[in-house]
Specification:
This protein is globular. Helices cover 41% and strands 24% of the residues. The chain has one domain (30-296): Carbamate kinase, CATH 3.40.1160. It has 9 helices and 16 strands. The N and C termini lie far apart (54 Å). With 301 residues, it is an alpha/beta fold. The longest helix is centred in the middle third of the chain and has 25 residues, at 98-122. The strands form 5 sheets. Strands 5-10-2-1-13-15-16-14 form an 8-stranded mixed beta sheet, with helices on both faces.
Length: 301
């Protein structure tokens, strides 16, 4: 029997060691639900798209239950620009009038969702696309008109239009898909009691789904390393109360606030842990789940 060269043997041993590091996590998470918010650069870069698809497929093959929720803000913005429609935002959320809602639904449900489903299936998975309208899976209500102070004796009325907030998740559709080993890919479009489509922030949808399903983990892919402290150093692990304190002290600022708040809400809703990870790293999802160090910030109770 021909022996392996020493260097090659060392590489094989290293691979085996990596697999052994993952073993306790595979055992622990078998049959558990993971809700993953897919967005940012991981949806643009071809290598990152492929590694994400393979991560999700790997999770399903070894007995975990991944559910993907995706965004699509830049794609919506490009279509609106081509149509000569100005994009308007308040607190980072797109103000959605009737025309904009038509574009949002067309892009998220008819384009982005199908691309992600196709990508996962192309690499050997069994994905199926959904929006909150399917089976009334995600019921929502409009965010009410808001009065915003603009200084002394000056106020602005913010009409969000068809922007929604989740009121109820009907998990039956997802449970049926899970029994047949499908990977659900969810577009963040909800439905009102009157059957009207509503645009909902994808992070909030992921958090609501994770809470409703009592998921093991909520994972948010971002374009930064994770949550950082006052000196700019990555915080690998945060407690719930500690995270609230960093928001109050303005250490956690800007666009990171809604992401951390989403994590906190999901923990209070029954999720075991919430993760904000760097989606610019290849196989970021697997690295966060199956290695001791991970690639972002985990928030726990």
């Amino acid at each position: 029997m021909e022996s392996f060269p020493k260097v090659e043997m060392q590489n094989l041993v290293q691979r085996a060691s990596t697999l052994m590091e993952a073993l306790p996590y595979i055992r622990k998470f078998y049959g558990k639900v993971f809700v993953i918010k897919y967005g940012g650069n991981a949806m643009v870069d071809e290598k990152l798209k492929e590694s994400f698809a393979k991560d999700i497929i790997m999770m399903r093959y070894i007995g975990m239950i991944p559910i993907v929720v995706h965004g699509g803000g830049p794609q919506i913005g490009r279509v609106l620009e081509k149509m000569g429609i100005e994009s308007k935002f308040h607190q980072g959320i797109r103000i959605t009038d009737e025309t904009t809602m038509d574009v949002v639904e067309m892009v998220l449900v008819g384009n982005v969702n199908k691309q992600i489903v196709s990508m996962i299936n192309q690499h050997g998975g069994r994905a199926i696309g959904l929006s909150g309208k399917d089976g009334h899976m995600m019921q929502a209500k409009k965010i009410p008109t808001e009065k915003v102070s603009k200084g002394t004796n000056a106020n602005e009325i913010i009409d969000w239009g068809r922007v929604g907030q989740v009121t109820q998740i009907n998990t039956g559709v997802l449970e049926l898909l899970e029994k047949d080993n499908f990977i659900p890919v969810v577009a963040p479009v909800g439905v009102s009691d009157s059957g009207e489509a509503l645009n909902i922030n994808a992070d909030l949808v992921a958090g609501a789904l994770a809470s409703a399903l009592k998921a093991e983990k909520l994972i948010l892919l971002t374009d930064i390393e994770g949550v950082k402290d006052a000196s700019g150093k990555l915080i690998s692990e945060l407690g719930l109360e500690e995270a609230k304190g960093l928001i109050k002290k303005d250490v956690i600022q800007g666009g990171m606030i809604p992401k951390v708040q989403c994590c906190l809400d999901s923990l209070e809703g029954g999720v075991q842990s919430a993760h904000i990870i760097d989606g610019r790293v290849q196989h970021a999802v697997l690295l966060e789940i199956f290695t001791d160090k991970g690639v972002g910030t985990v928030v726990r109770k």
